[in-house]
Specification:
Largest sheet: 5 strands, mixed, barrel
Shape: globular
Distance between the termini: 23 Å
Strand content: 5-15%
Radius of gyration: 22 Å
Order of helices and strands: HEEHHHHHEHEEEEEEHEEHHHHHHHH
Low-confidence stretches: none
Number of helices: 16
Bound molecules: flavin-adenine dinucleotide
Length: 459
């Protein structure tokens, strides 16, 4: 499966993907020729060629059929090396299918799961829409979309400000049921189809964002006006479901970040082998060679951390609250991985541009695309700040640091482990304000530490 994908990307995909990126954002056609609202997104035809390939290979159906996330994340890793942006639709489709498979009623599953699991080009896509204009970090305060019960369905009204994969046939949407508590605990998760039962549009796309990264993927603003929605799980457990959706996408983000860094480095390497300065290839200049060697070690570590988060997720993805200790361990590793791999990807993409010198900023050389694409990785699915603070929380409340050190004890030298452990313990004893304000250096250190230990067991 992966070999066939790789061969296709090398012969055809790379050129198509580059052309689509240069072509820019798709268009929104809001009305048909008779003036009827249709909100159709118009893509370059080749976009569908790339997109549908990944679905056919199994970025969604394999997870549902094989009851394992490993094939899906392996595909995402491989595809992202060539086109990191295209993995956004795959991730949000997985983030729609999994909660439906776990928490949807038998009727909902019978109605929608077969379309998301198709292996041909008629497969439906998903989307995950939480963020509103007031902000994505503090969803409890910012989500104003309301849901009113209406028979076996709900009617949702509100506006979603960042909606990747707008136009998807199904979306999972965060909204507050009428009368629910304020804050994040009052949120619930709903399944919202693109079309109502009577065939009319169920959500409206106000506009598409003009953005520097993932240009081929439509990110829109969506209006919900008495949109038909179906509750997933119970109305008071939405916060857990939202977090489970984020678990899937944060882990995917880590895998994409590593693949992007790897790609940026590969391009930098082949450039450095051929570009000469001061009488020899720049790769043979001691300073640059040393940087390559260091960064290669960083890449191995970043991969080890990202893949650990994939494997732990694969152990716990079918758990429901109350969760096991393994789930809390997963949460901490996922925060470390999302934070560190995204930072590594941004830094590596910037460095790879510098290796290309002035040519690096020219669109035709490709290095600038990796930097553009990398910039989003540290922001969506929860910014780096969010990863640090949520990572602290799971250490404070679930003692996930002890679970992590227990896991690393199997491979880490005990002296290093004790040093790191005591630094974390000291930090957790700080007064709350300092604990939060000074968290980044500790989180960075812990991420690198865990990544390097995990990398030492890669063969
Ligand atoms: C291209 C693109 C596609 C997207 N697609 C989707 C999508 O499909 N679905 C979806 O739901 N969302 C989507 N998003 C939204 C994304 O998840 C948010 O942008 C992100 O979560 C941050 O929210 P915000 O932009 O509102 O920033 P804010 O929450 O307003 O934060 C602004 C800054 O303040 C920092 N900050 C906030 N709180 C704290 C704190 N306590 N301590 C320290 N710093 C803090 C943040 O880290 C950030 O740096 C998308 C965004 C982009 C750019």
């Amino acid at each position: 499966m992966l070999e066939a994908e790789e061969a296709w990307w090398k012969t055809e995909g790379v050129a198509i993907s580059g052309a689509i990126d240069r072509g820019g954002t798709p268009w929104l056609r809001m009305f048909d020729c008779l003036g009827k609202r249709v909100d159709e997104i118009l893509y370059p035809r080749e976009y569908q060629t790339i997109l549908r390939r990944g679905y056919r290979s199994g970025v969604v159906w394999r997870a549902l059929e094989e009851k394992s996330l490993l094939p899906a994340y392996s595909l995402i890793y491989n595809i992202s090396f060539h086109d990191p942006g295209i993995c956004c639709p795959y991730t949000v489709s997985l983030g729609t299918a999994v909660p439906l498979a776990k928490y949807g009623s038998p009727e909902l599953q019978a109605r929608f799961l077969p379309q998301l699991s198709r292996k041909d080009d008629s497969v439906w896509q998903g989307a995950t829409w939480m963020t509103e204009i007031k902000g994505g970090s503090d969803l409890g305060a910012a989500v104003e979309t309301m849901a009113q019960p209406a028979g076996d369905a709900w009617l949702l009204t509100g506006d979603k400000y960042f909606t990747s994969n707008a136009g998807a046939e199904l979306a999972v949407v965060a909204a507050r049921p009428q009368g629910a508590a304020a804050g994040v605990r009052g949120l619930a998760l709903f399944l919202v189809p693109r079309f109502r039962k009577n065939g009319e549009l169920n959500y409206f796309i106000r506009r598409l964002k003009d953005k520097i990264a993932t240009r081929s993927v439509p990110t829109g603003e969506v209006e919900l006006r008495d949109a038909e929605g179906y509750l997933l799980g119970s109305a008071d457990s939405g916060v857990y479901l939202i977090l489970e959706v984020l678990n899937l996408s944060r882990v995917a983000n880590s895998v994409v970040s590593v693949a992007l860094a790897q790609r940026a480095m590969a391009d930098a390497l082949s450039y450095a082998e051929h570009r000469a300065a001061f009488g020899k290839p720049i790769l043979d200049q001691p300073l640059l060679r040393h940087q390559f060697e260091n960064r290669l070690r960083g890449l191995r570590s970043a991969f080890a951390l990202a893949w650990e988060s994939v494997q732990l997720l694969n152990d716990v993805w079918m758990e429901r609250p109350p969760y096991s200790d393994r789930y809390h361990l997963f949460r901490l590793v996922a925060h470390l991985a999302k934070y560190w791999t995204a930072e590594f990807a941004v830094d590596t993409a910037k460095w790879a541009m510098e290796v290309h010198g002035g040519l690096g900023v020219l669109a035709e050389f490709g290095a600038e695309r990796w930097l553009r694409e990398a910039m989003i990785l540290a922001i969506w699915e929860g910014t780096s700040h969010r990863q640090i603070l949520d990572g602290l929380e799971v250490m404070e409340r679930k003692r996930a640091n002890q679970l992590l050190f227990g896991r690393l004890a199997e491979i880490a030298p005990s002296k290093q482990l004790q040093d790191m452990e005591s630094q974390v313990e000291q930090h957790l004893k700080l007064p709350p304000h300092e604990r939060e304000a000074l968290a980044e250096p500790l989180f960075r250190k812990l991420s690198v530490f865990a990544a390097e230990i995990l990398a030492s067991k890669l063969n």
